[in-house]
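Late entry, 3-(4-hydroxy-phenyl)pyruvic acid complex.
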Amino acid sequence: MKQTIVIAGLGLIGGSLAKGMMRSEDNYIIGYDVNQDSLEFARLNGIVHRTTTFFPEAIEDADIVILAAPISESIQLIGVLNELPLKKEMIVSDVASVKSSIIKAASTLTNEKICFIGGHPMAGSHKRGISAAKAHLFENAIYVLTPSIRSTDKKVETLKNVLQYTKSKFVILSPDEHDEMTGVVSHFPHLIASSLVHQARKWEDTHTFLPNLAAGGFRDITRIASSNPEMWQDIFYHNREKMSVLLEEWIHEMIDLKGLVDNNKKNDMILYLKNAKHYRDGLPSKEKGSIASFYDVYVDIKDQTGAIASVAQLLADHHISIKNIEILEMREGITGVLRLSFYSKEAQSKSSTFLQDNGYDTTIL
Ligand SMILES: NC(=O)C1=CN([C@@H]2O[C@H](COP(=O)(O)OP(=O)(O)OC[C@H]3O[C@@H](n4cnc5c(N)ncnc54)[C@H](O)[C@@H]3O)[C@@H](O)[C@H]2O)C=CC1
Ligand SMILES: O=C(O)C(=O)Cc1ccc(O)cc1
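Prediction complete; structure with ligand written out below:
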């Protein structure tokens, strides 16, 4: 059955959803955004069927509306929707990284034609805007749904059917459970990553050479500090109660850790690190989920012209596509390490074998 789907906010997430849902001929997709350039990009690249900057016109014939603007803007749009005269019933969902404030806004809806179901596709990127949108962004990722009092199981199934083209895995959670868990594994790590970067920046005043020593570990743990600051401020604001509890807990943990360092508690420190390693190693890291991870191969390469191209060409010759390629360490004139990420375990192991057969040193961690 043909469905008219409106995506309000055609940025990284809205654009990726649109691209995923365009896979079905049953979906007629309208893009709404306040930014003309995003809409033009979407039109030129066939990401949606139609675009508009006028919200009432966008939702006129909608069966499903997905709010994909920044959290505070999506909350406002819920209020706007409530005031609009609607011709027919519609499912309204969102993609916001925090669910309690969205569901709170939805609970004030009085328009009987609206069935609200909160949503959060748990995958993203440090980039923003529609030009970074990818059809496969949510493949195998967890997609949390938080039904409100204004939804039914049948409507949840309808929404899942439409969203199935994103190829994500649906999980139903309460808003509070969602905000607590994402607080721990997604939001709080962003705060810490930013604070580590600040610490390094301050120490650079003492040691100007310091940035040159910022190798793989520092870059890995602070990668997420390069994300969209306005979006993360909005997330921290809406999840501020959980953030405050987590910060309090973290401060205590750091004080305990300082005790281990100051008093040279060797065995306690080893145990602390062992326990962390054990838990980290046991995370479901080979599937894309709330912690995105891929099948990686580390390759030692020489610092010489064409070194990366040779590795890429070798894999291309064997029809293996690389999901991501990153230079982890490159010391001038010596060697470096490339991290190649693949979509499957099979591609990972084949690549490693082909590379080794061609004289490269590879490691799979
Ligand atoms: N970036 C990420 O990794 C993830 C973000 N999210 C959530 O997705 C939402 C959007 O984030 P992104 O797509 O990353 O941001 P983005 O900055 O790439 O896109 C936001 C879009 O919303 C538009 N917009 C702003 N105010 C609007 C309004 N009043 N009406 C219509 N459009 C409006 C902007 O022009 C922009 O095109 C946020 O609520 C965020 O919490 C969820 C999962 C992952
Ligand atoms: O895993 C992370 O924390 C990311 O950086 C990607 C991301 C960002 C925001 C979300 O709401 C969900 C996923």
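The longest strand covers residues 114-121. Will revisit in the morning.
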